[in-house]
From TrEMBL:
<dbReference type="InterPro" id="IPR001214">
    <property type="entry name" value="SET_dom"/>
</dbReference>
<dbReference type="InterPro" id="IPR044430">
    <property type="entry name" value="SETD6_SET"/>
</dbReference>
<dbReference type="InterPro" id="IPR011383">
    <property type="entry name" value="N-lys_methylase_SETD6"/>
</dbReference>
<keyword id="KW-0489">Methyltransferase</keyword>
<dbReference type="InterPro" id="IPR036464">
    <property type="entry name" value="Rubisco_LSMT_subst-bd_sf"/>
</dbReference>
<dbReference type="GO" id="GO:0016279">
    <property type="term" value="F:protein-lysine N-methyltransferase activity"/>
</dbReference>
<dbReference type="GO" id="GO:0005634">
    <property type="term" value="C:nucleus"/>
</dbReference>
<dbReference type="InterPro" id="IPR050600">
    <property type="entry name" value="SETD3_SETD6_MTase"/>
</dbReference>
<dbReference type="Pfam" id="PF09273">
    <property type="entry name" value="Rubis-subs-bind"/>
</dbReference>
<keyword id="KW-0808">Transferase</keyword>
<comment type="function">
    <text>Protein-lysine N-methyltransferase.</text>
</comment>
<comment type="similarity">
    <text>Belongs to the class V-like SAM-binding methyltransferase superfamily. Histone-lysine methyltransferase family. SETD6 subfamily.</text>
</comment>
<feature type="region of interest" description="Disordered">
    <location>
        <begin position="219"/>
        <end position="250"/>
    </location>
</feature>
<dbReference type="InterPro" id="IPR015353">
    <property type="entry name" value="Rubisco_LSMT_subst-bd"/>
</dbReference>
<keyword id="KW-0539">Nucleus</keyword>
<dbReference type="InterPro" id="IPR046341">
    <property type="entry name" value="SET_dom_sf"/>
</dbReference>
<dbReference type="Pfam" id="PF00856">
    <property type="entry name" value="SET"/>
</dbReference>
Length: 487
């Protein structure tokens, strides 16, 4: 991922907004009770919300959101979230219990300690986060694909990768619930109660963490975080071990999580020692919605984790993940008229690539707006699959071939950027890439032309249909760019 541009810290990013009581009243005057209670809680916990913004449904593209009620300059601090108000395991009163079992609970999934903390707080009528938790009372509006009927996933999302991600999630949720979460509550039934929890309820909590939690980069030098733009984390640096993950475990960041996402965001979260601050990433005009970034993420990721996607070409971070086996299928397809000994030669070549681990069977090629991002494995496959039998024998007999191959083709001029593909010397590479794209298009349930017809009547679609269409259509457009570059 590209590194976000580091922006100048401006003096008005200090978040010390002095609001008089009239101004406070105006900002939330149309808010329903739960939102008022929540924003009053934010005020009493020193969130220092600027009078230039308003939280609510008005002006938001999806349920709650934040809008500018005055012009806002770049670098201006919209609000802060003191670290003491972050809902994370070590801030709760079961911190000790979780800490004792942390390595077991977080062994497969960093989310489990947070999920247990959330379940505990949700079950506690006097939780210090009560006004925050009550704002999202039943999670009924979380329309993530993991709640969809299997038949709808198959019909709308097959081939996008979201279908596979949901399958993996559902298995992991069941396993985490049965093997970690329930046993934890049972072991500590004297100290904490699991209340009405069952698997369905746990699943809703997972969805809440999935689409509302934030992660913070461990090092200041690490630029990107999921569900936040951490490029200008600013005030803090830790001396953590290089082996440790670059992200800290997830946490809930009240108020920051009312902001919606857009690829070209106008606000970003920064991580300070005492507080996290939401800062204007560019000037924002009165009336504009304030959008955070959930990271430089593809539609596949947005659809999977958050249940929405952006229409082509808005999401410049979009990618399509093509299983590597598709290039082998392309080679076979291109040579289907050839004699059977050539086809078995291709089988030998593919087995060789896998055996020598030049390619892993479950690898993917990642195709983005500029070209194939994982071009080293793709070039490896193109090179070997384009050889005739004699060239392949010579290649495998060549002493030290593996060292030589490991740095092949990574010179700047041979990267698989779309702009450079038309001038590739070996026409077989272009044929393979083009056929790979054509074959991948067969995995979706609709054609590009059918998608375009639906886009013309977008207002008649349900939101599930709309966002699934944006996901599949965006991916097909990227494949079309590849096919066009090879033609
Ligand atoms: C962190 S929450 C943002 C606050 C949310 N709108 C609410 O009402 O609570 C993330 C959820 O907001 C929605 N969302 C965020 N950005 C969106 C966008 N650009 N378009 C549609 N829905 C969006 C999605 O439902 C997502 O799962």
């Amino acid at each position: 991922m590209a590194t976000p541009v580091k922006r100048k810290r401006e003096s008005f990013s200090n978040c010390n907004h002095d609001l008089n009581s009239n101004q406070k009243q105006n900002i939330f005057s149309d808010a329903p009770d739960k939102l008022k209670t929540f924003t009053a809680w934010c005020a009493s916990n020193k969130f220092n919300i600027s009078r230039k913004v308003q939280v609510g449904r008005e002006g938001s593209c999806a349920q709650y959101g934040m809008t500018a009620v005055e012009d806002i300059p770049e670098g201006y601090c919209l609000f802060q979230v003191p670290r003491t108000s972050l809902l994370m395991p070590h801030n709760t009163n079961i911190a000790g219990l979780i800490e004792q079992e942390k390595s077991k609970l977080a062994a497969t999934n960093q989310w489990v300690p947070l999920l247990i903390s959330l379940l505990h707080e949700e079950n506690n009528p006097t939780s210090k986060w009560r006004p925050y938790l009550d704002l999202f009372p039943d999670f009924e509006t979380l329309d993530l694909p993991m709640f969809w009927e299997r038949s709808d996933i198959e019909k709308l999302l097959r081939g996008t990768g979201v279908d596979l991600a949901v399958e993996r999630d559902l298995k992991m949720i069941r396993d985490d619930y049965n093997k970690l979460v329930l046993p934890f509550f049972d072991r500590h039934s004297d100290e904490i109660s699991k209340g009405q929890m069952d698997l369905d309820y746990f699943k809703k909590m997972v969805a809440f963490v999935m689409s509302y939690s934030f992660t913070e980069p461990r090092h200041r030098r690490t630029k990107n975080s999921e569900n936040s733009n951490s490029g200008d984390s600013g005030e803090e640096e830790s001396d953590s071990d290089d082996d440790e993950p670059s992200m800290l475990p997830p946490m809930m960041v009240p108020l920051a999580d009312t902001l919606n996402h857009i690829t070209h965001n106008n606000a970003k979260l920064t991580f300070g020692k005492e507080a996290l601050k939401m800062v204007a990433a560019r000037p924002i005009k009165k009336g504009e919605e304030i959008f955070n970034t959930y990271g430089q993420v593809s539609n596949l990721h947005l659809m999977h984790m958050y249940g929405f996607a952006e229409p082509y070409p808005d999401n410049t971070n979009d990618v399509v993940e093509i299983p590597v086996v598709r290039i082998f299928e392309a080679a076979k397809d291109l040579h289907q008229d050839k004699e059977s000994s050539y086809k078995s030669h291709l089988d030998v070549v593919w087995a060789f690539l896998i055996e020598q681990e030049l390619i892993l069977a479950d690898d993917i090629f990642v195709l983005g707006r500029e070209g194939i991002i994982t071009d080293d494995i793709c070039i490896q496959a193109l090179k070997v699959l384009s050889m005739d039998k004699q060239q392949f024998v010579e290649y495998t007999e060549k002493e030290g071939w593996s060292d030589a191959e490991s740095d092949t083709s990574l010179a700047e001029d041979s990267r698989l950027e779309l702009a450079k593909i038309p001038s590739l010397v070996d026409v077989r590479w272009k044929q393979l890439l083009k056929r790979m794209g054509q074959l991948h298009l067969n995995n979706y349930t609709t054609t590009l032309e059918e998608d375009e017809a639906k886009l013309r009547v977008i207002s008649t679609l349900t939101s599930q249909e709309k966002f699934a269409l944006y996901t599949a259509h965006g991916q097909k457009m990227l494949i079309k760019l590849l096919i066009d570059a090879c033609s």
